[in-house]
Write a structure and sequence with these properties.
The chain is α+β, with helices and mostly antiparallel strands and 216 residues long. The chain starts with a strand and ends with a helix.
């Protein structure tokens, strides 16, 4: 596993329909070593901190392998690294293989996988069309959010090394499936999921509510 691209950007104001929207989803690749900090990368900021950023969503990764899929979905759109607002465009790092709580080393930094990305309307702003939101959810190609447990420098082509596997075996894809698929047999998975230490509390509360409902 390795870094294909490191992408950063500051919030900008863009016109979308009849509105002016402030968003940090526009990221551009950088080819120098930059510092990965507790809340974001050097040179990067999130616009709406009520739903973006914070310790549990400090860094967002997206596999470069998914880009061909999206190029076929939207052949009229030009896809450059960072198109999905990801800080890290990665190789070999997939939601189906990464557990919530898995710990990784990139450069001199260490990160823990926390959750999938649930798209908001600003992904539609980036693409210039709102149907991307439904397609993004349906694809289950969510990408992965991380919290930073050790600050450090990263640069393209750095190896992404798994240094500790979480033994709860709840993958990032499992979280997506609990959101997108209504399955009455999910009670066992829900019970396991709410016990995962590194799953953010907001997700735990949401799943506890679903669990309570499923047992009625």
């Amino acid at each position: 596993m390795k870094l294909i691209s490191v992408n950063v950007g500051l919030p900008v104001k863009v016109k979308f329909g009849n509105e002016i929207v402030t968003t940090g989803i526009f990221k551009n690749p950088v080819d120098k070593r930059i510092n990965l900090k507790k809340l974001n990368l050097e040179g990067d900021r999130q616009a709406d901190l009520t739903v973006h950023g914070g310790l549990d969503k400090a860094v967002y990764s997206y596999p470069y392998e998914y880009y061909d899929f999206w190029r076929k979905e939207f052949p009229d759109i030009s896809f450059n690294w960072g198109m999905f607002g990801e800080n890290l465009t990665t190789e070999g790092l997939f939601e189906s293989q990464v557990n919530v709580g898995d710990r990784f080393q990139i450069g001199s930094a260490q990160l823990v996988a926390t959750q999938p990305r649930m798209p908001c309307y600003k992904l539609g702003v980036k693409f210039g069309r709102m149907d991307i939101i439904k397609k993004f959810l349906k694809s289950e190609k969510s990408g992965i959010y991380f919290k930073v447990i050790k600050e450090g420098g990263i640069v393209i082509n750095d190896t992404i090394k798994l240094i500790k596997k979480d033994n709860n075996n709840i993958t990032i894809k499992n979280i997506v499936e609990l959101i997108t698929k209504e399955d009455k047999e999910n009670t066992t998975l829900l019970e396991k999921t709410v016990k995962v230490r590194d799953l953010p509390q907001g997700w735990k509360n949401y799943f506890l509510e679903k669990l309570s409902y499923s047992k009625k």
